[in-house]
Structure formats: structure tokens, C-alpha cells
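ok trying again, last paste got cut off:
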Amino acid sequence: MLINRRFLARVACSLAAAATLALPVSVFAADEAPDALIKRLADETLNAIKSDASLRNGDLNKVMALVDTKIMPNVDFRRMTAAAVGPQWRQASPDQQQRLQAEFKSLLVRTYSGALSQVSDQSIVIKPLRASPEDKEVVVRTEVTGRGDPIQLDYRLEKTPGDGAGWKIYNLNVLGVWLVETYRSQFAQEINAKGIDGLIAALAARNTANQAGKKG
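nice, full thing came through this time. structure:
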């Protein structure tokens, strides 16, 4: 089955840590260093979550609104979806690409709703950035500490040009596993069996089941 329970549980745990970084303010300086960006987002978001009971309790409507207004402006979601789908992305029609992005976004948002309720006393350590000033893509390595063992949480970011210039997140590594690559292996199985439309249908079915509170 596409996106099994064990995988979703792992993603939820990772996003519980990632949630401490994932609700940034909508505007940031284009020349802000990527590690400084991650640090600032962590500090701001921890305070926001601790002061909002509905966020801590995973209010889905509020989480979805936050994702749309706060997270997505700081994520290259088209690139993330394209990477998760793999080579078949280029064969998909514009309509199929839009539907894939919508269903993938819904899957991640609904996973966030459960993850946010787990955020409490975490803190984050930003590791020294290994990058040159001219680099357009970097990895910001962090460690989340709190209850239990420290969690390795790394981000791939790209520097985007134009009016919205700045660093954007396009992948997440939890305990040595990159999120996009993990999804890609599962998406590929569905595409090989039923094509792009089959993947869209499977994601839609998973989202419907999640919305209804079903387990699969």
C-alpha cells in the first residue's frame, strides 16, 4: 500500500521536530545566511507554538492556514514534488502536476497536524555551515534536543533569484534519511503499477482516509 502506517509514523516523528522550524514569518532578508534563517525560524516558531493551544492540539484548519501563509512561501514545493515523483514528473501534464502538488501538500499538511501537538520543550543547535558565499545550494545541519535522544535534522536549501530572492527549503533529512527520496521510492511503485493518474488517486485516497480518521 502506498505510504504505509510505519512510514507515516516516522514522518510524523520527524515533522514533530521539523515543526519547530516550519512556521516562519512570511518575509525575510534576501541576503540572510541560510543557517541564520533556520535559527531565526526555530526561535520564532517555538514561541508561537508554546503560546497557541490550538496549534499544540493539532487544529487541522489552523495548521492548513499556517502552512499556506507561512510555510509555503519558504519552501520550493514544486521542486519538492517533482523530486518525489521522479523522472515521470516531466511526462505529466500541467493539470496532473497541479493535482500531484495539491495531494502531496495535503498529505504533508495532515501529517503536520499530528506532529505539531508533540512540540513542547525542544531546542535546536545549528551546526557550523560548510558552504562558500557563492554557493546556490547548501545543507544546514541541526540537532534537535529535548525529551529523548537528540534528533539529527538537516535541511537542503536553494537560493532563489528574482523578486522573491532568498533561501528556500526543498528537502529534509531526519536521522540520515532524506524525506523526498523516501517518498520517491514509494511513489515509483505506484507509478510503475498504475501510472501518474494511479499515484494521484492513491494520494487522494490516503488523504480522504486521513481526513476521516481511518488507519491503513
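cool. The chain is about 50% helix and 15% strand. The first strand starts at residue 123 and ends at 126.
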